[in-house]
Amino acid sequence: MNKVVIVTGGSRGIGAATSMLLASKGYAVCVNYHSRTADAESLVTKITELGGKAFAFAADVSNEDDVVKLFDATEQRFGQITHLVNNAGILFTQSRLVDLSLERFNKVMTTNVTSCFLCCREAIKRMDSGGAIVNVSSAASRSGAPNEYIDYAASKGAMDTLTKGLSLEVAASGIRVNCVRPGFIHTEMHADGGEPNRVARLSSQIPLQRGGRPEEVANAIVWLLSDEASYVTGSFMDIAGGK
Ligand code: NAP
């Protein structure tokens, strides 16, 4: 069976590294993104030049109609969807809970958790011959991210619980659902939090004494999706340098 995967937020950072690695292993990849078309298209060009199969599709994965269009477009292009990586995620400026607006809290929840629910639902409806899903949570679901992003950490906690419940619900249908929890990884996301050099600042607090690379997270995601992980479901892999 052809391997067809959607990587949400697949155009930059961890998602881009994952899309590249999946394409190199023979998956046909839908590189989903939100608004930065040039980044997504240039990744697709890179994958194609290396002999892989990919296309870019803009969709806000917190929006139900957009998610259906994303899955329809991928099936039209490549056939039945067999794999999914729920990677799209956002955070905003570091802040204490007392200063968070309701609007911000809801935006983080819909982008990080509602998206995961919508994409999982759409995938499971279509995976009638089994499949595999990996959710990209965060070490913040364990730390709680006080004084920085409690909203973000709470959204990742919800993602962990969704992973656990769904993995049990669909195991007998041959669909595996797992989760990775990255720690401090060098991507542009930290600039959105107001501190582009956050990973470097915190490096000495990480047991392995450095931040992680997107490719190091991609390796775990791709393994969990693969047949090598055929007896793994409902699992959580911390990729956080020991933190
Ligand atoms: P990033 O570099 O900021 O990239 C975010 C990606 O998500 C981009 O492709 C972006 O598209 C897309 N995106 C944002 N909102 C979207 C939406 N509503 N619909 C569809 N796509 C959307 O992020 P990253 O650091 O690689 O993080 C990827 C995942 O890893 C996130 O879930 C994050 O929470 C998690 N994580 C990251 C770290 C870290 O240290 N970096 C640590 C733990 C967990 P555009 O380019 O179009 O905006």
List keywords for this structure.
9 helices; seven-stranded parallel β-sheet; Rossmann fold; alpha/beta; 243 residues; binds NADP nicotinamide-adenine-dinucleotide phosphate; 46% helix
Mind explaining what this structure looks like?
- The chain has 243 residues and is an alpha/beta fold.
- The protein has one domain: NAD(P)-binding Rossmann-like Domain (Rossmann fold, 3-Layer(aba) Sandwich).
- The protein has helices at 13-24, 37-49, 64-78, 102-126, 140-143, 150-170, 189-192, 198-202, 214-225, and strands spanning 4-7, 28-33, 53-58, 83-86, 131-136, 175-182, 236-239.
- A seven-stranded parallel β-sheet has the order 3-2-1-4-5-6-7, with helices on both faces.
- Helix 4 links the parallel strand 4 and strand 5.
- Helix 4 (102-126) packs parallel to helix 6.
- The longest helix has 25 residues, at 102-126.
- The model has no long low-confidence stretch (mean pLDDT 98).
- Bound molecules: NADP nicotinamide-adenine-dinucleotide phosphate.
- NADP nicotinamide-adenine-dinucleotide phosphate is lined by residues 8-9, 11-15, 32-36, 39, 60-62, 87-90, 111, 136, 138, 182, 184-185, 187-189.
